[in-house]
Amino acid sequence: EELVKDDKIEAVFVATDAPSHARHCIEVLNHGKHVAVAVPVTFGNIEEGEKLLEVVKKNRGLKFMMLETSCMRADFWAMRKIFQAGGFGKLVYSEGEYFHGSPLSAYAPGSTYKGIGSYKNWRNGGPPQWYPTHNNAYYIGVTDGTFTEVSCIGVEPEKPKENPYNNPFNAEIAFFKTSEGGLSRQGRSSATPGTTSEIGRVWGTRGMFDHEGYMGLDADKLPDLTRPALPAGVPEGGHGGSHGRLMQEFIFSIIEDRKPLVDIASALNMTIPGIIAHQSAMKNGDWLKIPQYTINT
User: Fold this and answer.
1) What is the per-residue burial (b if ≥16 Cβ within 10 Å, else e) of 25-48?
2) Cross-strand pairs, 183
C-alpha cells in the first residue's frame, strides 16, 4: 500500500499473500502502474477476480500479467508452439497435474506437520483447486481456450484437521469439458509425498505430447520450439527456468505495447475453474457451469 504511492515506480510485481492478490493488483492499477502478479490471480473469490477484470478494462494503457510458471516451462512452450502450428489438430483430451512434494496445507496424513509458514497462515487447509494454475495452464495456456463445465471429486486426508476454509479435502481431481468440445483431467494435491509434479500432456486429432515429446502426423514440420533467450547475465530462475523468462515477457509487453502471454482473461480462465471445481467437489461431483472471461467485452 505504501510502495504504490511512489511516482518513480512504473511497474509492480505483486508477490503478497494469495488472498490479497486481486485487491493489491487493483490498487497498483488505480495508481497508474503496470502490474504483474504471482499465482493465483484470486484465491477462492470469484467476485474479486471479476472486479479486477473491470479495473483492467478501464486502464487499457496499463499492462496486467499473471506470472504462471508452467507457461514458460520447456514442455509447455513446445506444446503451445505445436498447437499454434496445427500439429495437434483439435485437442481431444488433455491432462495437468500439480502434486506438491511437501505438504502445503494443514493436511499431512499421519504427521504433526503444520504446513508451510505463510502470512496469517493463508496456505493452511486451503482447497487444493483454489491453487490450480500450474496444472490448468496445460490446456488454457497451450490453446488459449477455456473450460466450460466441471465435475470434481475430493479426497479426504487420513486425519482431517480443522481449517479456516472448512475444507475437507487434501486432493481434488477435476474433469473438465473444454471450449473445443474436448475433455481435460486436472489433478491437484497439497499433501503428497515425493517429488513435486508440475506437468501436462495433450492428445489431439493430429498428434500428442507427453514426457517423451511430440508424436504425430507433422513430426517433420514442427516449428522452432526453443524458449525465448534471456539477456546476458539474467538467470533462468526456478520452476523449470521460467522465472526470468516470465519477467522478461512482462517487461517486453510494456516496451512493445502488446498483450502479455497471460493477460487478465487468461489468468481468470486458468483460476476460476478451480474455484468452481471445489464447489463441485463439495457437491459430490455435480457438473457445474464455469464463467467465461474475455478482455474484449
Assistant:
1) bbbbbebebbbbbbbbbbbbbeeb
2) 93, 177
pLDDT at 112 exceeding the cut of 60? no
Look-up of cell digits 516470465: 246
C-alpha cell at 177: 469439458
pTM of the model as a whole: 0.94
- Check pLDDT > 60 for residue 54: yes
Burial class, 141, CB count within 10 angstroms (exposed 0-12 / middle 13-18 / buried 19+) = buried
What pLDDT, on the 0 to 100 scale, is given for residue 113? 46
Q: H/E/C letters for each residue in the chain?
A: CCHHHCCCCCEEEECCCHHHHHHHHHHHHHCCCEEEECCCCCCCCHHHHHHHHHHHHHCCCCCEEECCHHHHCHHHHHHHHHHHCCCCCCEEEEEEEEECCCCCCCCCCCCCCCCCCCHHHCCCCCCHHHCCHHHHHHHHHHHCCCEEEEEEEEECCCCCCCCCCCCCCCEEEEEEEECCCCEEEEEEECCCCCCCEEEEEEEECCEEEECCEEEECCHHHCCCCCCCCCCCCCCCCHHHHCHHHHHHHHHHHHHCCCCCCCCHHHHHHHHHHHHHHHHHHHCCCCCEECCCCCCCC
Q: Is the pLDDT assigned to residue 47 strictly greater than 80?
A: yes
pLDDT band at 116 (very low <50, low <70, confident <90, very high): low
Residue 84: predicted pLDDT:
97
Give the integer Cα–Cα distance in Å for 253 and 50. Answer: 22
Which residues make Cβ contacts (< 8 Å) with residue 48, sequence separation at least 6? 22, 23, 42
Grid coordinates in use for 11?
511497474
Check pLDDT > 80 for residue 102. no
- Report which of 268, 257, 276, 258 is spatially closest to residue 297, judged by C-alpha positions: 268
